[in-house]
Amino acid sequence: MSDRARRTRIVVVTTALLVVATLLGGCADFGDEDRARAAGDFTSETVTPVVPTPTPPSQSPQEGPAPTGPCVDPDPAVIATCLGATSAVMPGGDAQGESTVVAERTTGQIIATRRNGPKRVIASIPVDADGDGGLMDFAPSPTYDQDRLIYAYISTASDNRVVRIAPGDTPKPILTGIPKGATGNVGSLHFRSPTELLVATGDAGDPSSAASPGSLAGKLLSVTALTSGSTAAPRVLASGLGANATICANASSGQLYLTDRAPTEDRLQIIDTTGTLRPLWTWPDRPQISGCAAAGSSVLVSTARTQRVELLGEPTREKPTVSPPVVVFEKRYGALGRMTALPSGLFQVGTINKQGGRPVATDDRVVRFLPPTSSESNV
After folding, report:
1. pLDDT tens-place string over residues 140-179
2. Contact 339, 347 (CB under 8 A)
3. Do the Cβ atoms of 246 and 237 come closer than 8 Å?
4. Contact 235, 192 (CB under 8 A)
5. Rounded to whole angstroms, how far apart are CA atoms 160 and 154?
6. Contact between residue 366 and residue 349 where contact means Cβ atoms under 8 Å apart
7. CA-to-CA distance for 358 and 14, rounded, in angstroms?
8. Does residue 150 sit in helix, strand or coil?
9. Which CATH superfamily does the domain covering 3-33+70-376 fall into?
10. Considering the entire predicted model, what is its pTM?
């Protein structure tokens, strides 16, 4: 797929997510989910939409007086407010980055919104949010504009798992039995191709499980059986992942990256075409890296403890190593979580102050920004 095609698909998919929000609105029920696990076809159950039909997010902002209220943040960089602790962020389809699609970890909701605009619930998935579990990531199908499928990485009372969500249907399990712990549950999803879903799993608080070939904890997995009821085991591409494992991709270069929190350091690694991980940079001071995003020639990481976004130059064949990271900004919005990159070069990052920070009145939030040059960093 060409670079232009990748960027076009990102815009098409994220815009479609917003336009059809009501098709997936409502609360899915896991009460019958395990019983229906072997069913490959979707059930005939319908779900009553909980929001009115949304207007397309690409429209111009509404004219008139500026909105008021407790959830209005005067900072023009803030594009979403009064959220639960965020766990995944996707661009909303406009080049200015004013719209976003964001997941709330504890509520299990995927929400479409824009600056000073209404919130539209795209999906509401029952989750067990004990510890750091819950709704941890989501990824629309590569053919979302045709099938309207969303894949989500979640916690239940018994395990962490990947489920598939279709309009008017209960979530269907795709991959189950990922160990769940008091901590170390956070993982990530990324479609490497239309037929292959990469799943990065946390170590469930047990580094020995991450190294064990008999456990799905702390692994980078390749899942090609994307229908419910499949008994095919995922292929293990890499082991030894720590907590808060996050995959991010550069749509321009095609490079894939992974961040995690190992027992002795936080890490940024590159994923090669076979799935092998190669370390690029480590943080022995363990700033609690929460997310990563890549675009152009840059890779950015966000942190919870030090409340920073740091930038590294993307490695190339001529220069496979990276220079020390530079700080894009720090301690402006509190603890930072997952990130995403827009084709325009803008980035979005969600805050997680309700999870472990000091929330302000408009938290949790999604913030957009354009990274400065290296000479302008450390601000």
Report:
1. 999 999 999 999 999 999 999 999 999 888 999 999 999 9
2. yes
3. no
4. no
5. 6
6. yes
7. 31
8. strand
9. TolB, C-terminal domain (2.120.10.30)
10. 0.84
